[in-house]
Amino acid sequence: MSTDRSAAAAPLPILLLNGPNLNMLGTRQPEVYGSLTLDDVVALVERTAAEAGFGVQALQTNHEGVMLDAIHAARGAISGIVINPGAWTHTSVALHDALVIPEVPIVEVHISNVHARESFRRHSYVSPIAAGVIAGFGVQGYEYAVRRLVTLIS
Ligand code: DQA
């Protein structure tokens, strides 16, 4: 029987959340969101997290309750959250309230520069509880978000 106590336990995974319509990345307004797909985003996040020794749990949903349930279930089971809340960014007090529950660092990502678009995109219900916000760097913003999250966790 192994008695090696020196091996560090694997860290809890990073939760990657993508909100409504982000399943359509690559097809949806490519002039705004680019041509990469959600699968590309997940692969990028997995690769970046793996470099730092973290696994990834990924969810995209178009149903707000599904996202809220997933956030509740993640309490105690994740190290931190990278979230692109999509349009719920600008509308959802419920998402704001749920994201506080796991008590882990959160990085908010937007593919587009929400501040250079319609005025309704300038308000975020998530930003007040996020450690930081990355917007306007395309899909690469997810990579920056993971790197920052890892720094915050470590
Ligand atoms: C978005 C910006 C939101 O305003 C929009 O509703 C989205 C995507 C982005 O990634 O740029 O669905 O979060």
Automatic annotation (TrEMBL):
Q: Which pathway does the UniProt entry assign to this protein?
A: Metabolic intermediate biosynthesis; chorismate biosynthesis; chorismate from D-erythrose 4-phosphate and phosphoenolpyruvate: step 3/7
Active-site residue numbers: Y33 (proton acceptor), H110 (proton donor)
**In which domain of life is the source organism classified?**
Bacteria
Q: What is its EC number?
A: 4.2.1.10
Catalytic activity as recorded in UniProt:
3-dehydroquinate = 3-dehydroshikimate + H2O
Molecular function (GO) terms for this protein are: 3-dehydroquinate dehydratase activity
Keyword field contains Zinc: no
- Site Transition state stabilizer: give positions: R28
Keywords in alphabetical order: Amino-acid biosynthesis, Aromatic amino acid biosynthesis, Lyase
Signal peptide coordinates: none
State the top-level EC class: lyase
The record ties this protein, via Pfam families, to:
DHquinase_II
* NCBIfam families from the UniProt entry: aroQ, PRK05395.1-2, PRK05395.1-3, PRK05395.1-4
State the family named in the UniProt similarity comment for this chain: Belongs to the type-II 3-dehydroquinase family.
How does this polypeptide assemble, per the annotation?
Homododecamer.
Q: Which HAMAP family match?
A: AroQ
This chain belongs to the protein called 3-dehydroquinate dehydratase
Q: Lineage in the entry?
A: Bacteria, Bacillati, Actinomycetota, Actinomycetes, Mycobacteriales
